[in-house]
Amino acid sequence: MSFVSHEKRIVVTGGAGFLGSAVVRKLRRRGCNQVIVPRRATCDLSNPSDVARLFEKARPNLLLHLASAADDPADGGTPAESFYRNVLMSAHLMEAACRWGVAKMLCVGSEASYPADAPVPLREETLFDGLPEPARCAFGVAKRLPLVQAQAYRRQYGFLCVHAIPANLYGPGDHFASASRSLVASLVWRFFEALEAAAGEVVIAGTGSATRDLLHVDDCAEGILQALEHYDANEAVNLGSGTEIGIHELARKLARMAGFAGHIRWDASRPEGPRRRFLDITRAQRAFDFHPRRQLQEGLHETVEWYRARRARGAFEPREKAFASPA
User: Fold this and answer.
1) Half-sphere exposure of 257 (CA within 13 A, CB side)
2) What contacts 24+ positions apart, CB below 8 Å, involve 79-86?
3) How confident is the model over 279-324, as pLDDT tens digits?
4) If residue 203 lies in a helix (H) or strand (E), which one and from where to where?
5) Which of 58, 63, 250, 273 is deepest in the core (most CB within 10 A)?
6) CB 257 within 8 A of CB 300
7) What CA–CA distance (Å, rounded) separates 179 from 159?
8) Which pLDDT tens digit goes with each residue over 231-264?
9) pLDDT at residue 271 is higher than 80
10) Does 272 have pLDDT greater than 90?
């Protein structure tokens, strides 16, 4: 059965965001001309009445739930608000999708949902073996609850919803001037701020010894559409790069690409998050032949140059921030 086709009406929550924009672009390139992107200004997905109106108007065949209420511990965090909105959005959307007879739903989770002490590489079967790291526990738990809901709805109603967990995303189009920007965007922003201020030093939280799994946003978007088309299992599926990189090495690479020749100082008094984050992607490889195409060096260079060109045109407003913290 083909899920992604030109005649399908597809709702993409978060479709104006970093990942969502990439997914919407790929859908339209596939000939899907009935893609509906609800905007928060007119449709609050945590409000059941707004969700009901969305479904009455859009009458979707497919639903991609990519919207997320971010929580950045480095900025003090909003764990209660983030938990509340993430839980309500997924709960109301899945209930509505089930009642409206949506053929398939896909929810995007977060690698922050994995237990703090889960063995690396992170495998899907360990997702519920413990609580996420304390700093992001509320967010992590909220982002894995849709998997529990999906399994319950499948058992009781036969509703088909799959759950994808992406690694740390990066690439052109990231929200460089936003508090919700990715690790790569945060580091790039810091180096360009230093260049503009003629600063000789950039201070980054942590020791730089932590590792992260970095996935280009286009590869993630492709994986999501592959999962929508070909993955029907009841368990979560990881979407990662298949490799990990140390924050220290990543920072040096980005500094060189940005043209920053000053000193990088690591502030070990500031938290840097989990020691290692690296997703096992065996399940995605076997289920729908998922293989990221973008090499890290190429993707980072593309991202830096994209940002450089737009910053030169004044597309980004400087934002006061003392540290870039690994996500």
Assistant:
1) 25
2) 79/137, 79/138, 79/139, 80/138, 82/138, 82/139, 82/142, 83/138, 83/139, 83/141, 83/142, 84/46, 85/46, 86/139, 86/142, 86/143, 86/145
3) 999 999 999 999 999 999 999 999 999 999 999 888 765 443 333 3
4) strand 201-205
5) 63
6) yes
7) 35
8) 999 999 999 999 999 999 999 999 999 999 999 9
9) yes
10) no
Q: How far apart are CA 161 and CA 135, in angstroms?
A: 29
Separation between Cα atoms, residue 35 and residue 112, nearest integer Å: 29
With beta carbons less than 8 A apart as the criterion, state whether 108 and 18 touch.
no
User: What average pLDDT does the chain have?
Assistant: 92
Distance CA 23, CA 155 (A): 29
Helix axes 296-312, 247-258, angle to 10 degrees: 50
Phi, psi (rounded to 5 degrees) for 257: -65, -35
User: Given the structure tokens 């180096």, which residue do they identify?
Assistant: 191
What angle, 0 to 180 degrees and rounded to 10, lies between the N-to-C axes of helices 48-58 and 79-99?
A: 40
- In three-state secondary structure terms, 255 is helix
The answer to whether residues 170 and 217 touch, using CB atoms and an 8 Å cutoff, is yes
Tell me the pLDDT band of 95, cut-offs 50, 70 and 90. very high
Does residue 121 have a cis bond before it (omega within 30 degrees)?
yes
Closest C-alpha among 66, 123, 105 to residue 283? 123
Query: What letter does residue 132 receive in the DSSP assignment?
Result: P
The domains found in the chain, sorted by start residue, are 10-169+213-239 (3.40.50.720)
Helix-, strand-, coil-residue percentages of the chain, each rounded to 5: 45, 15, 40
Its pTM surpasses 0.90: yes
Beta bridge partners, 237, equal 164
Inter-residue contact 143 to 113 (CB < 8 Å): yes
